[in-house]
Amino acid sequence: MIKRLLAGLLAVAAVLTAPAPALAAPPPGLTGLEEWIDDHVAAAMAEEGIPGAAVTVIAGGEQIINKGYGLADVEKGIPVDPDRSRFLVGSQAKLFTAQAALQLVHEGKLDLDTDVNEYLSTFQIEDTYPGQPITLRHLLTYTAGFDEDHMVGMLAHQEPLAEGLAEYQPARVRPPGSGVVYNNYGIALAGHLVEIASGMPYADYVEQHVFRPLGMNDSDARCGGKGDTVAHLGDGTPTEATCGYMIPGGTGPTSTPADMGRYMLAQLTRDPRLGPGIAAEMQRQQHTEHPGLRGIGFVFEHIQHNGHPLLFKGGEMPGMNSYMLFVPELDLGINVVSNGDGKGGEGIDGIELVEALVDTYLPAKAPAPRTPIHADVDQYTGWYQAGRTSRFSMYKVKALWREPVHVTANGDGSIRTTGLSGGPKDWDQVEPGLFAERGGWGLIAFPEPGQLAIDGSTNVFDRIGVVDLPQLHLGMLGLGAATGLLAVARR
């Protein structure tokens, strides 16, 4: 197996594994893009040790690139064919769920702002916050407020959707609408609302009303698709699709690069086959923690690179990773998929690729000048933990290996953060509660006491006390382990 993997990696820079269909010429502003992508993908695959990948690009309302690289199946030596090789799409399936739900909203069968319990018959969502029900709008913007308590049900059980949702309902830990926290259970619940409103199983509805109108004939919303998808862990070991009751959130659906290209094209051109006005609804910002920050559409995430706006939706499954990004200034969409985790665990990083692409094909922009305001910032200092950290389930042990964000005052009205990507940063307050990165494009805000929000993030941060710091708990864990070993040694 290793010999075949090495052979695939050595050939990847030159091998395009299947002849692409007739493609449109790239717009003049994107001259040389195909060669640029070839070089980037070849380098990333060789560096990370990834068996296979594919890149599909839409620009100017047409598909201009659809290429496969390396091997779809290392053990069998099957090359990636961008028209036929199926990849696990992971959380990109959330786009299909959002689209399906919005179709039924337009038909009057669902309402974005109705209590979801009015639709549910076999179980009910706990009334943790009386008078503050969860709605479909909350589910599609990750603002329902569920705890991150889903791993056992997702990984170990394959059940009818309603049964899994009822049995593994997580606790509600924040009022709905009070913070974006990425959540799989909420999207799975939206998928069940699709079932209730349509009278069809989720996968059947998606096949008939999402895939078929766009000609996505090689896509499958069922767990594991058609059983011909091979994922590879970081060491190259093949692994089967991980499935569970959260299929509408991405645990198992598959698609080909060509089909995902069809989906991107429909989104970019606002194709009415998605449903009347639905592409615009999905892409338009629907929620933000602060007016000065980018937020989230219906599943689509609003991010930026050096001042250039981007739309993003990614997917991650064991052994497979996918990235879909839109660059509005280039009228471009790009989907990057890889069938190996690689050394970094994220496959080929599509965000990194698109950021480099933006730097290459768009003029550099300097951050807009902002005038700092000098006000007391002590109220913002402290330690902050990612809102996706579980509070009640065993999943909370992940927090032990997550560095919390630390906010300190600099003494001149600015603050410094550690624990965010990019290392320590200084931030100037430019509006009450809104801070701009000194010398950069980043923005953070404190929308309410004890809450930190980051521009374009799907994860708010909550203030924690010193006793909740993971460093303290890891130290106690280490001390306990050492004490136990010492006691055993003395016997």
Automatic annotation (TrEMBL):
<feature type="signal peptide">
    <location>
        <begin position="1"/>
        <end position="24"/>
    </location>
</feature>
<protein>
    <submittedName>
        <fullName>CubicO group peptidase, beta-lactamase class C family</fullName>
    </submittedName>
</protein>
<feature type="domain" description="Beta-lactamase-related">
    <location>
        <begin position="37"/>
        <end position="350"/>
    </location>
</feature>
<dbReference type="InterPro" id="IPR050491">
    <property type="entry name" value="AmpC-like"/>
</dbReference>
<dbReference type="Pfam" id="PF00144">
    <property type="entry name" value="Beta-lactamase"/>
</dbReference>
<keyword id="KW-0732">Signal</keyword>
<dbReference type="InterPro" id="IPR012338">
    <property type="entry name" value="Beta-lactam/transpept-like"/>
</dbReference>
<dbReference type="InterPro" id="IPR001466">
    <property type="entry name" value="Beta-lactam-related"/>
</dbReference>
